[in-house]
Amino acid sequence: AQSVTQPDIHITVSEGASLELRCNYSYGATPYLFWYVQSPGQGLQLLLKYFSGDTLVQGIKGFEAEFKRSQSSFNLRKPSVHWSDAAEYFCAVASNTGNQFYFGTGTSLTVIP
Amino acid sequence: DAGVIQSPRHEVTEMGQEVTLRCKPISGHNSLFWYRQTMMRGLELLIYFNNNVPIDDSGMPEDRFSAKMPNASFSTLKIQPSEPRDSAVYFCASSLRALGTQYFGPGTRLLVL
Known about the structure:
The complex is a heterodimer of chains A (113) and B (113).
Chain A: E1 3-5, E2 10-14, E3 19-21, E4 24-26, E5 32-38, E6 44-50, E7 56-58, E8 64-68, E9 73-78, E10 87-94, E11 101-103, E12 107-112
Chain B: E1 5-7, E2 10-13, E3 19-24, E4 31-38, E5 42-50, E6 53-56, E7 65-71, E8 74-79, E9 88-95, E10 103-104, E11 108-112
Parallel strand pairs in B: 2-11
Antiparallel strand pairs in B: 1-3, 3-8, 4-5, 4-9, 5-6, 7-8, 9-10, 9-11
């Protein structure tokens, strides 16, 4: 069965510091992987996705993620965090048939001045 | 484009009442998803339609929940009878195709007293 684990429930970083949010997945074949961001009171917005090809994926708002098959990970990174990045971040995995989608439990990011 | 439209934005009802949530996907999108978000369980996929046909409803909690998509521009999620544990934010999302970027609506905040 597929599953997605986001080990960090809550992370606090200083503005300007680098950020890495962890995501581990469990899936028998090559998964389709996504990172979404949810601002308070809003729906989710796609940051980036990986289907195949280059394992380093660039997304919007300066985010990137790297697919590491050996570690079953798809960690999200940003070199310099802005106060507006404070939000909830969700990692998701989909089957390659497109029939199943699973979201992680989310990581809440707080940015301090 | 107006994006994914959900109505109502807020719903307060009493236990035992029927609740109907509505969703209008982005025009031209072939896939539609219903999610439920709670603090305890995070974001859960309830049901997913492709070309108006339900593909995976394994996430629907129980028989009290039903979803329909009578045409490409409208879907409903119905809870009958509603229970306090159904209180959550319900999101609708649509995408061009099954594995495409999902665009989320603003959500319906449901409170069952």
